[in-house]
Amino acid sequence: MTDHPRPGDRTADARRPRTTTRDPELLARRLTAWLGTRLPGARAHGATVPDANGMSSETLLFDIDHPDPPEAACALRLAADPAAYCVFPRYDMARQYRTMRLVAARTDVPVPRTLWLEEDPAHLGAPFFVMSRAAGRVPPDVMPYTYEGNWLHGATDAERDRLEADSVAVLARLHGQVPLAEAEFLAIPGTGSALSRHVEAQRAYYSWVVDGRPRSPLIERGFAWLADHWPPDPGETVLSWGDARIGNIVYDGFAPAAVLDWEMAALGPRELDLGWMVYLHRFFQDLAEGSGQPGLPGFLRRDRVESRYARLTGHPPRDMEFHTLYAALRHAIVMLRVAYRRIHFGEAPAPADADALILHRDTLEAMLAGRYW
Which residues form a coiled coil (predicted)? Predict the structure, then answer.
């Protein structure tokens, strides 16, 4: 997850919340020391922290200087610094690593090759894993790809249509190809359906976010709405990517080359990923329109995503009002935590109304009132 600009704020990327409390140069030196224990004589060369690094797990890009490296260009995913007012309460790097290896072994969904897992925090201050670095380009978050001036916005309708179709196909293949029995380690503890466990986990996450902080009446209304509109049949349980959005895919041209960011993976109905993909695009589209730009109104439309997925899988998505609102609610909890993080670091004042910290407040209000779609 990453921070997002406010509508009309063209200087947002200059005032983004701090994304790390770590020293990149020290991190690179310690990485070289660790790398020598796995590949004698190897050095980490040209280590950089991407500008788009998020506020959750951190990424370090580097090359391996060695006569026979398993991969020359690598990326390291490091659990968030516990001192950095983390976005999530727990970062299970072994779980992410295992998920990527399962997807690589049992599907044709493109994921980076995983190389090493290090669970001992002594080396870099937290557990991490190393994977190959995919070449390509990613739709930007800041400024969002719905704004003018980036490669996706400047593409033709046909090119964006291809990217949309292939991105929906990623979900279809993931949901259909992973044997559920091999993904049981992703099951959320608890009782009831996978969907009910997922929602209860989000309730627990919200309670963690507001511990010692003002509560959000809007988010709590959202949970009440979910209870009142619960699907009569939650549907088939599959491996859900979790952060299913095009900003987490590296594209070769307009075709997916690598699917990234598996820290939110879990078991749940197909619609969890579909609702997230649809809603996150609408979030960026609403930002663009709020800034007086047309955005990309014909791209990743809910009806088209649903019909594409149904044709590919034979499973017409259902209860999508529920799942898109649930996606907006989940995003609101993350954004509330990110806002409280900014307040913690003195980057923003604390407002009197906690709901004012939710950037898509109006959207969530409209969804709850049944007037958004």
Answer: none
- List pLDDT tens digits, range 181-190: 999 999 999 9
- Shortest CA distance to 293 belongs to which of 139, 157, 152, 149? 149
CA trace torsion 183, 189, 192, 194 (10° rounding): -40
Residue 282: exposed, middle, or buried by beta-carbon count in 10 A (0-12, 13-18, 19+)?
buried
Q: One of 3, 68, 81, 243 is an active-site residue; which one? A: 243
Amino acid at 305: V
Catalytic annotation on 243?
A: yes
Closest CA to 272 of 324, 224, 207, 349: 324
Neighbour-count burial of 224, counting CB atoms closer than 10 A to its CB (0-12 exposed, 13-18 middle, 19+ buried): exposed
Q: Which amino acid is at 43?
A: R
Q: What is the DSSP string of 199-242?
A: HHHHHHHHHHHTTTS---HHHHHHHHHHHHT--SS---EEEE-S
| pLDDT tens digits, 95-150 | 999 999 999 999 999 999 999 999 999 999 999 999 999 999 999 999 999 999 99
Q: Cα angle at 137 between 125 and 61, to 5 degrees?
A: 25
- pTM for the whole structure: 0.92
